[in-house]
Amino acid sequence: MNKMFYYLTQGIGRGQTPLTSFDSALLSSGIANYNLVKISSILPAGSSECDTVSLKEGSILHTAYASLTSNQEGATISAAVGVAIPQDEDKVGVIMEYSSCCSKQEAICQVNLMLQEAMENRKCAIKEIKVVASETVVSQSGYITVFASLSIW
Q1: DSSP string spanning the chain?
Q2: Contact 101/75 with Cβ under 8 angstroms?
Q3: CB 7 within 8 A of CB 53
Q4: Dihedral, CA atoms, 46, 129, 64, 96, nearest 10 degrees?
Q5: Are strands 126-137 and 93-100 parallel, antiparallel or unpaired?
Q6: Whole domain around residue 81: which residue ranges?
Q7: Which of 120, 99, 100, 95 is closest to 41 using CA atoms?
Q8: CATH label of the domain that carries residue 110
């Protein structure tokens, strides 16, 4: 079986359209030059964390992500993604995503609650929880996107 790797990241982007704002958030998170395929909620057993993606640019990158784009001046927006690593390395981990008009801390709390519930449902003891999040207040013309993700390869 091939070793799997994962990368947790977050970013914030600005643009004149929702899509260019999202692309800017991907640039700031370091994964803009990959073809993202959205995945759901499972981290393969025995995966190792990396501090960057080690695939050739243009490759397909399986990614669980949360994002929120807004142009509503004064709104606080946040996105968070977390992973629960099981104590038993032969078991899968769980990934959860959340975005809302809320603080970064609220988004992190929501992700933690979902991770704990998902692992309890699997009757799986947690070794560690890791969460990344972004937050901003919309304060200029155009659009702004908050983004958080976990990519697997």
Answers
A1: -PPPEEEEEEEEEEESSHHHHHHHHHHHHT-TTSEEEE--SEEPTT-EE-SS--SPTTSEEEEEEEEEEE--TT-EEEEEEEEEEESSTTS-EEEEEEEESS-HHHHHHHHHHHHHHHHHHTT--EEEEEEEEEEEE--SSSEEEEEEEEEE-
A2: yes
A3: yes
A4: 120
A5: unpaired
A6: 5-152
A7: 95
A8: 3.50.20.10
Q: Which of 48, 68, 62 is nearest to 5 (CA)?
A: 48
Active site amino acids:
35, 40-41, 97
Q: How many domains does the chain have?
A: 1
CA distances in angstroms from 5 to 59, 110, 150, listed in the order given: 15, 25, 10
Q: Are 67 and 79 in contact (CB under 8 A)?
A: yes
pLDDT in tens, 114-132: 999 999 999 999 999 999 9
Question: 83 is written with which tokens?
Answer: 């992973």
Read off the pLDDT of residues 83-96 as tens digits, 9 standing for 90 and up: 999 999 999 999 99
Which phi and psi angles does 30 have, rounded to 5°?
Answer: 90, 10
Tell me the pLDDT band of 2, cut-offs 50, 70 and 90: confident
CA distance 107 to 101: 9
